[in-house]
Amino acid sequence: MSRIVIERAASHRPAALEADEVLLERALELAHTDRPAPRRELTRTRRRTLTRRGVIWLGQTCNLRCHFCYFLDRIENARHPEHAFMSLEKAQHICRTLREVYGNTAVDLQGGEPTLWPPIVELVRFCRAIGLHPTIITNGLLLADRRRCIELREAGLRDFLVSVHGLGGLHDAVVGLQGAAAKQMRALSNLRELDIPFRFNCVMSKAAAPQLPSLASLAIETGALAVNFLAFNPFEDQLHSGVRTANNVPLYSELSGPLELALDRLEAAGVEANVRYIPLCMVAARHRKSMYNFKQLPYDRHEWDFHSWSWTGLPPQRMRQGETSPPFALEPRIPADGVRRWSAPLRRAIAGHPLLERATQRVWSALSHVRHPAPTHEQLLWNNAEVRAVEHCGYRRGKACRRCDLRRICDGFQGDYAALFGTAEARAVTGLGRIDHPAHFIREQDRWVEEEDREWALP
């Protein structure tokens, strides 16, 4: 039996909860949680420093077909220029650029499925040698082979970020492969026994939403150091493609209950938890410290640096063929959609008034020559976060957002989600006064720090 204490209702227990507990017990048996796990002494801090982690996409080749994957078109189309894995030499060049040009000290190695890439061990060894501590984002199937885990550990891998999207058959259905969950649990058993750190990524699909508390318990019992809960992930092929529909995307209000229970369990067990891309008003106040919209991401040391991410996210850095494009720095920008939104009322007001139109043009011309103080590094990141939210992902706000004290640090509702469900779920948070700094709530979260990062991440 599991050591987990699961809340037991005084009266009738729902059949779904009973079923989830059975699935959880089976998963824990496969992960061999009856064997002692390594005790890891972690340094924790509430200090928020800007991330120094980069990311590289090695190619969109994968052994699963997750229905919510935002690269699904590229994975299924072998002719897509980003489908094939790149060469080791190109990957090494990109990683060296992350280290030497952008100053990154860690990197997420991402696919497709990176463990399928033949030279992955060599790349891990190379990254470690140049001071770029590597993480592999993986579905874990190939890690069911203990020898593969040992190879990567000995090459210098820092940790794994394992994609766990449900229990048992639900996970299999979500990822499109029968037996995937059982292999993943054997992989977690290997990582525990070999003392290789790992974290969880969990996409909160509609089917998986009721299982979030059980997935939190799985993380606790297997020894995961952190759990990332991902909502409507607003990127890539997913946008406007019909991949996400009302049949597989849960309402944020439907997520709130099971998500809050999962967060409570993780906090009680001392496991770090992070929630991506949900409006801050969708959870109880005690959980706002775990909520990360675009403006909070730069303060998560396990998320990606906007500077290097903007470069590695371009097609030349994600294709097998061709050279990489030159590195570049971020520049201040006003989101194009934001310009239209802010200027539309003014344009309507002066339409048909020639004198006002000429006067306005003179004012804009004069302002264009005014020298503005250079933004700080932090302000530049906030600006980039707004560009990503407004221009790239079409975020929208509900009526309640206009009265909300959190509106300057919360993105609102992702564009495709708003198109499916609208924005009526928004609830204005008031009585706090206007909050301007994105780290206002996340400063209260205890986060662990790797030994290699202590010098710059701790006071």
List key phrases describing it.
disordered N terminus, 10 strands, alpha/beta, two-stranded antiparallel sheet, 15 helices, 459 residues
Outline the secondary-structure elements:
Blueprint lengths: L14 H16 L12 E3 L7 E5 L14 H5 L11 H13 L5 E5 L9 H10 L3 E6 L7 H10 L3 E5 L5 H7 L4 H14 L4 E6 L8 H11 L3 E5 L21 H18 L2 E5 L14 E2 L13 H7 L23 H15 L3 H15 L8 H16 L22 H7 L25 E3 L4 H4 L2
Parallel strand pairs: 2-3, 3-4, 4-5, 5-6, 6-7, 7-8, 8-9
Antiparallel strand pairs: 1-10
Helix pairs in contact: 1-8, 3-4, 4-5, 8-9
Overall description:
The protein has 459 residues and is an alpha/beta fold. The chain has a domain of 293 residues: Aldolase class I (TIM Barrel). The chain has 15 helices and 10 strands. An 8-stranded parallel sheet has the order 2-3-4-5-6-7-8-9. A two-stranded antiparallel ribbon has the order 1-10. Helix 1 packs parallel to helix 8 and helix 4 packs parallel to helix 5. The longest helix is centred in the middle third of the chain and has 18 residues. The N terminus is likely disordered.
